[in-house]
Amino acid sequence: MMKCFTIFKDKSKSRERKSAPELSNQRKSDNLDSRRVSKSTGSASSPRSIKEMYKEREQNLRVFSVPELREATKNFNRLLKIGEGGFGSVYKGTIMPPNGQGDSTVVAIKKLNTQGLQGHKQWVAEVQFLGVLDHPNLVKLLGYCAWDGERGIYRLLVYEYMPNKSLEDHLFNRSMPTVPWTTRLRIILGAAQGMAYLHEGVEVQVIYRDFKSSNVILDKDFNAKLSDFGLAREGPTGDRSHVSTAPVGTRGYAAPEYVETGHLTIKSDIWGFGVVLYEILTGRRTLERNLPVMEQKLLDWVKHFPADSKRFYMIMDPRLQNQYSQTAARRIAKLADSCLNKNPKDRPAMSEVVEILKQAIQDSEEGTSSHVRSPQSSRTHLSASDKQIKVINAGRDMARAVQS
Ligand SMILES: Nc1ncnc2c1ncn2[C@@H]1O[C@H](COP(=O)(O)OP(=O)(O)OP(=O)(O)O)[C@@H](O)[C@H]1O
Ligand SMILES: [Mg+2]
Q: Per the record, which residues fall in region Disordered (predicted)?
């Protein structure tokens, strides 16, 4: 698992705690269903900050107590643990409605490691961003818990439960069924739509800062949702071209100019998106220590197989067993290359990425015989559309296999 890293120590620690929202431990509202507003119709001249927007909407989040979440997770039973990241553990849990009446809800509960202020800062960011943002391709935050007790500090987050794990699990965990080509494209399109909303669909620009395959999680129908907003930042406003921060993120996904200068823009997110596009094509992680040295860094390795060359198909994930549209695959590789432009200004906008991914899905669904590589030889008896149907069926089989 690829963990987050901090390259430089954050120097503004004492201010950070003050910038926390006034999150009270009292239950603010029992109404979890009230719609969250996603795009303001307010004055364009003075966009509100996420913190201001959060103040208006915080009552949409439920405030949980520590005993409630202990009960939900059978005292954080390790058998209910479903994941572990750089900042804490994730448990599957069951919560009751606030008034105790009615059906229980299955949720995912993230318990942050709370040594130091870093965890607290990330928890605050996650609550504020996910308390404000609302899009089908972002994970829904249902509530939170903050408790500073004598026996320790608790920072927890309660999300909708996503039964199909992460894109990382599906691409790299050999015990999982192979994700078919069109499913991969649909997943990455969903993730792109989530990012396009962050970059272009909110009153303030939101820089996600941690785009990677483990942060793309999947619902029961394999719809992709972005998770983990602990590192998200508001984009630059006014005449400023970038935000300056201590570079944080995950090795193998962070844009080079951001790592070198700490200058953050939405174009840093586009780089990470390009990396994940290559992970989807190749079925290889961005950094893979178990491979020969030449192949350890995915971006260096794929350079030897340009999208326009005859050798291109050699990078394709062997687990796809040649069941993919070549036209679409080349289109995706070219898109990845444009996302991975050294010059951030030459990288596409997220809305352009979304359009190209839609075209790639169309290429794959049209599938003429020259598009789909035959598993055995060119003398295959299956027509391209037959193969396409096979691919779609394989997708359904996989969904069933994973859900059962
Ligand atoms: N809402 C959710 N529903 C179901 N499972 C989830 C949910 N959120 C996270 N998970 C699971 O928990 C795993 C760990 O998530 P987490 O974000 O803590 O770590 P990570 O993304 O692997 O690493 P990092 O901490 O660097 O982001 C995820 O990969 C996913 O499988
Ligand atoms: Mg994560």
A: 1-52, 362-390
Alpha carbon distance 285, 250 (integer Å): 12
Would you say 332 and 304 are in contact if contact means Cβ atoms under 8 Å apart? no
Write the pLDDT tens digit of every residue in 194-246: 999 999 999 999 999 999 999 999 999 999 999 999 999 999 888 888 988 88
Please give the residue range of the domain that contains residue 189. Answer: 167-395
* Residue-level pLDDT at 213: 98
User: Which ligand minimizes its atom distance to the CA of 157?
Assistant: 1
Residue type, 187: I
**Is 178 found in the same domain as 58?**
no
Q: Which atom of ligand 1 is nearest to the CA of 161?
A: 3
> How many whole angstroms separate alpha carbon 270 and alpha carbon 272?
5
Please report the pLDDT score of residue 87 as a whole number.
79
For ligand 1, pick from 142, 214, 226 the residue to mutate: most ligand atoms within 8 Å of CB: 214
Q: Which single residue is written with the structure tokens 């954050």?
A: 10
Look up 210 and say whether it is catalytic: yes
Is residue 381 included in any domain, yes or no?
yes
Predicted TM-score of the model (pTM): 0.83
116 confidence band (pLDDT: 50, 70, 90): low
| Ligand 1 centroid to residue 313 C-alpha, Å | 32
Q: Which atom of ligand 1 is nearest the CA belonging to 87?
A: 25
- Does residue 67 register a pLDDT over 50? yes
* Burial of 165 from C-beta contacts in 10 A (0-12 / 13-18 / 19+): middle
Choosing from 169, 210, 317, 363, the catalytic residue is: 210
CA distance 90 to 72: 13
User: In the chain, what is the greatest distance between 2 CA atoms, to the nearest angstrom?
Assistant: 73
Which residues does the annotation place in the binding site for ATP? 111
Q: Does residue 342 have a pLDDT over 60?
A: yes
**Mutational pocket test of ligand 1: of 5, 95, 227, 229, the residue with most ligand atoms within 8 Å of the beta carbon:** 227
Residue 43 in domain: no
pLDDT (0 to 100) of residue 151: 79
Using a 10 angstrom Cβ sphere, with 0-12 exposed, 13-18 middle and 19 or more buried, the burial of residue 18 is exposed
Q: Which residues line ligand 1 (CB under 6 A)?
A: 1, 3-4, 82-87, 90, 108, 110, 139, 159, 161-162, 165-166, 214-215, 217, 227-228, 250
Answer yes or no: do 178 and 321 share one domain: yes
